[in-house]
Amino acid sequence: MSNDQDSRSLATLVSDLAQQVTTLLQTEAMLLRTEMSEKASKAGAGAVEVLGGAICLLAGLIILLQALVIALAKAGLGAGWSSLLVGLVVGMLGVILLRSGKATMAPSELTPDRTQDQLKRDARVIKEQIR
Question: Which of 32, 65, 69, 89 has the lowest tally of Cβ within 10 angstroms?
Answer without folding.
Answer: 89
